[in-house]
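Worked example 3 (structure in, sequence out).
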């Protein structure tokens, strides 16, 4: 595993390129736009998505998927709703058995498929792993201490992947629960929007703490229903990621919710952003998946109602606060 390919040159893909290079690997970074790949190679910076980080000479950017698929390991870091298309484009050049490490967090709209299911459908010849956890791209890019979950059903392959991408400051913890790692990463984006709304509305820290806790109950119910383990959600890919994303304005999802809570229109907020806010696109898919499994997720349903069903925010808040009292059991 001397060479790592990274599909997706947004902030997270670029940050992973920087940290994997620090691990001593040769890195090929794929950008959809040829002009972005050229700019990265010429300036040693990603001016669009991570302009303040200088990139090592050992990182080569390309817009050729065949070039990135030639690496020993490929990290898939495209936005969740585009992962299926990119994986299908990769299929003709994918080497049988080559590891695909999914770094996108979301549930596919329409199909309600998890990212592992999306990749398995397009790349049945790939060995699949999931990288998830509490990560702000800029901190990873700068080499600040970070811990993540790396989930892989094959323990030997998982350990090799940990050794390939891990550094003293980027510490992967191995798991075999791909479902739990995926659900934690996808649902926390939706819950972070809700937490931002609470903060933007000025409801206080008590309300945000309650929402994080009850949100954990929601994502745990969904993960278990899909075959994941509850204990996985108490780790980095669940609780750790939720705490980070639901409590900092560095989070795109939290900051979007905060702006909505202050009364700004969703369309106006999104129009100002270049990077994808995954929770907006996953909210409906998460709620529909939960309904298909007969799982109750009132907080996520509230976010979906505001974003996709145009229900007034005050009506959603009133409905959540009017729910019957119940026991605290998950």
């Amino acid at each position: 595993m001397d060479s790592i390919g990274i599909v997706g040159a947004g902030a997270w893909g670029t940050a992973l390129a920087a940290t994997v290079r620090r691990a001593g690997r040769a890195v090929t970074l794929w950008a959809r736009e040829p002009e972005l790949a050229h700019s990265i190679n010429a300036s040693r910076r990603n001016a669009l998505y991570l302009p303040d980080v200088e990139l090592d000479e050992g990182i080569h950017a390309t817009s050729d998927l065949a070039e990135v698929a030639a690496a020993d390991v490929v990290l898939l870091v495209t936005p969740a709703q585009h992962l299926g298309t990119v994986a299908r484009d990769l299929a003709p050049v994918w080497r049988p058995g080559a590891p695909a490490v999914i770094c996108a967090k979301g549930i596919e709209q329409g199909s309600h498929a998890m990212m592992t299911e999306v990749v398995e459908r397009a790349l049945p010849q790939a060995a699949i792993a999931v990288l998830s956890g509490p990560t702000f791209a800029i901190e990873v890019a700068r080499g600040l201490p970070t811990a993540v979950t790396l989930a892989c059903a094959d323990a030997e392959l998982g350990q090799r992947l940990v050794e390939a991408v891990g550094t003293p400051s980027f510490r992967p913890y191995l798991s075999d629960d791909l479902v739990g790692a995926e659900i934690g990463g996808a649902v926390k984006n939706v819950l972070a929007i809700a937490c931002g709304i609470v903060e933007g509305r000025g409801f206080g820290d008590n309300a945000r703490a309650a929402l994080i806790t009850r949100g954990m109950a929601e994502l745990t119910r969904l993960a278990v229903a899909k075959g994941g383990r509850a204990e996985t959600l108490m780790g980095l890919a669940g609780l750790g990621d939720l705490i980070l994303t639901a409590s900092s304005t560095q989070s795109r999802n939290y900051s979007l919710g905060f702006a909505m809570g202050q009364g700004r229109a969703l369309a106006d907020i999104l129009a100002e952003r270049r990077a994808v806010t995954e929770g907006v696109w996953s909210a409906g898919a998460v709620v529909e998946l939960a309904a298909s499994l007969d799982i109750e997720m009132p907080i996520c349903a509230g976010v979906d109602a505001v974003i996709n069903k145009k229900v007034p925010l005050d009506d959603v808040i009133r409905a959540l606060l009017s729910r019957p009292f119940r026991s605290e059991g998950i």
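Notes: Residues 3-176 form a domain with the Rossmann fold fold (CATH 3.40.50.720). The chain has a mean pLDDT of 96.
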